[in-house]
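Final report, closing paragraph on structural work. Over the funding period we assembled a curated collection of sequence-structure pairs, and we close with a single example.
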Amino acid sequence: MMMQTAEIKTEETGRKYRCQDIVKALEAHIVGSQLAAGVELPGTAELASRYRVSEKTVHRALQHLADLKLIRRVRGSGSFVRGNMGLPPHSRIGFFYFESLNHEIPSLNSILCRNSRSLLRQVLEDAGLSVEFHSEQLPKVENCPLLEMELSRFDYIIAEAGYRQVAADALRNFPGEVILFGDDEFVFGPWHQVFFDYRPGFRRALEFLMERGFRKAMAVGVPNLSTAEHRYEALCDAAELCGFGRENLCFPVPSGDYFHFQILCGREYGKMFLKEFKCDTAIISLSDYVTVGVLDVLYEHGLKPGREVQLISYDNLLSQVPEFKERFMAFCQRAYDNDVRLIVDAEDYCFQDAIDSLTDEAMRRYNKKRAIVFATLQMYRHDRMPYLRRILDDAKEKGYIAGVKFVRGAYMEAERARAAALGYPDPICKDKQATDENFDEAVRFTMDHLDCFEMFMGTHNEESNYKLAKLIDEKGLKRDDPRIFFAQLLGMSDNISFNLAHEGYNVTKYVPYAKVRDVLPYLIRRAEENTSVAGQTSRELRMLKAELDRRKAVRAF
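Its predicted structure, as stored:
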């Protein structure tokens, strides 16, 4: 897409302008409709040259125009004219979308919708309008009356095309304008619809392959998935248009049902490709989710995409990774500036390497004098001790204080199921005893190298807390040594927390903050990760009852 750039002429070539003069001149062009909405203004240096002022003066002028809502300034991109799009300024616009239901890569699954929301907000803000966003799981048919009531609050509705499948009546009865987006084919109804044309993108991909000597391509995607089928048809059309030839494409079908397991589907395609591997054949993935599985197999066999194998993937979801990293580091910087400790939580095995990599980098940056950023190690994983030793070696070499938090772990069943399904070794210790031994070893190791560590021990296990308290005393350390913290959830094992605090140890209480439907599963997982909690809770209740009875007896006297 070509960006339209404004052409601005100055009236007096020899005149030196002031800031307010530039504001008035540009405002006149915008208000007088000489500059259309979305048009990019000339760069700061060019405007400074035209008006014979400093770039600082231009910055002030542009900021004033932005404050007046006449332009939008985008860092790293430029300044753009806002418009009104012909809609009343107080139009009520609702954007309805589904929450992610994909459990393989939840962090990536929402990117497309997030990008859509971001772009929509930008367009509407340029027009001086606002939008209200609504997120939900797939709406149920029986809830259509409630949905109709919700929709009635707005003058215009923008919704994912999937809404028509379960809420067609509500959308048909909506008195205002409805725009559906994000489907692969047009569906007739009383609404406008924006849908995708995949052919230009696939044509560019095939032309890229032909330039590099590839004459065949293997398409990979989930069979019977409508999106994959539409994309493959578009790929075939593009092949005819650019001269690649439809006959040089193939879309094999792996055995098995992979509708909800796109990564597994990708692994099967990877195996199929290796069996028929030919140097003149490229892989075109119809989904980044499938690509993840293909890459797993290629890397396992020592093949590097872009070298031994040519792989092109649709969606570009991974382009968001640099943005995420930038936001994460900015968050760590804010914690560092305010001297606040930041503990990065652990996640499923499939995400943890990426989390570890980011956390390690953040520790190198911000833990020079004390630990600001802490990594969380789930000690039910048998590879965490080697990782802990690598952290120590890296901290000594790079000159920083490593922050670590130890927990047992909370995804055991899911981890084992995923490992079995994907065919990689089980990352979990064989039993609870092995986990306990791994946990204790990590704590002892850290205490033996406390000059390079700061530690949080997050556990509701009474024995584990006692062992660390005893170890502190044995090493002759102060009980409130700022490098050592005990940690429990508020409302769980409070007797442990209060007794430790009473004896002078550093104790933190974690407070889960979210909707009840999100907090309860989290708390249940915390209880399941340590089987001793159930017994401790019963004991705690008995102790509370005994104390109440004691107080009642005292009061009777």
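Confidence is low (pLDDT under 50) at residues 100-109. DSSP finds 20 helices and 17 strands in the chain. We thank the funder for supporting this effort.
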